[in-house]
Amino acid sequence: MATLTADWKGRKMSNDTGLPLITVVGASGKQGRSVVDSLARSGRYRVRALARRLDTALAQQWRDAGVDVRSVGIQPGMERDLAAALRGSYGAFLMTPNLVPPADYEFALGREQADAALAAGVQHVVFSSLENVEKRTAGSKWVPNFTCKALVEEYIRGLPLNSSFVYLAFFYTNIMEFYPPASTSDGLTFSLYLPHHARQPFVDPMTATGPAVVEIFAHPQLYAGASLPIIGEILSADEMAATFERVTGIRTTYEPAYTRESLVRTFPAIAANEHLVRELIDMAEYAVEYGYYADGRDLAWSRQVDPQALTWEQFLLRYNWRGTHTTFGSG
């Protein structure tokens, strides 16, 4: 699959030192790639991309386009390196990776990033957060992937710097990477951790994150302290399967993997990690029973500021995906 910035070959971003510098943590991930790309395209900023490796095609492509690419990965104990890499930045996009339980240091990673931004004198951070599931469910659902990000957000809000927060919906890309459909005698069977008709928010992180972040940095006072959902489309798993069949012409059915038994039967590789099984089941139940987003969130905002945000149908057409297992790597 082509990189997001493939059409930037031969083009050069402005390196006018009068432009504010924005540094992107986790630049080689799906969200980070989108943010680097959108910031560079805007022409309003100098861009610094922090990635684990510098020897990738994506890193070279960014360098050719005028992006300052530096080797700083997301791992514990990197606060001093992060602070050095963030120095001179007006703004920073911060994010923590989804750790596979029982790994439990996501909050520590986020806190180090926030402290590094403060030490470096960053004026405005945008952090990729999510709802506090433990708080919303009074502890009945265990979804550290969500709650740890919410706790990092809470920590950032207590620091003396401007901050804004984006809440990405379920990723379309996770279906391609982790839950690809199974072949049957006459087509494909889709399975996700959701029941048939429960409508949930989905998004393409590789194209929707960046435009939202550019909008926030362009209007820092308007979005100071805001928590902003990023959504491509709200639809059910049944609707996703029907759209896939219409777009591809491949006969498609949907079989939910919403219970523990159906999840481990459909995705046996998950069964070996009981912590992960519990998190996935609790996450699905949380989204269905409580709603992915808390009441009062502006679910229309991201499509208002980025009308090109991909629907599921547009995502399928853009990537010409026909159900094969697909990975995106790290650039």
CATH architecture: 3-Layer(aba) Sandwich
Give the overall silhouette.
globular
Taken in chain order, the helices and strands follow as EHEHEHEHEHHEEHEEEHEEHEHHHH
**Order of strands across the biggest sheet?**
3-2-1-4-5-6-11
Q: Which consecutive residue ranges, at least 5 long each, have pLDDT under 50?
A: none
Strand content: 15-25%
CATH superfamily: NAD(P)-binding Rossmann-like Domain
Short description, anyone?
The protein is built from 13 helices and 13 strands. The chain has helices at 30-42, 57-64, 79-86, 106-120, 133-136, 144-157, 172-177, 205-218, 237-248, 260-266, 274-290, 301-305, 312-319, and strands spanning 21-24, 46-51, 68-71, 91-94, 124-129, 162-168, 170-171, 182-184, 187-190, 200-203, 227-230, 233-235, 252-254.
Structural description of this entry:
The chain contains 13 helices and 13 strands. It has helices at 30-42, 57-64, 79-86, 106-120, 133-136, 144-157, 172-177, 205-218, 237-248, 260-266, 274-290, 301-305, 312-319; strands spanning 21-24, 46-51, 68-71, 91-94, 124-129, 162-168, 170-171, 182-184, 187-190, 200-203, 227-230, 233-235, 252-254. A hairpin with a 2-residue loop joins strand 8 (182-184) and strand 9. Helix 3 (79-86) packs across helix 4 and helix 9 runs parallel beside helix 13. The mean pLDDT is 94.
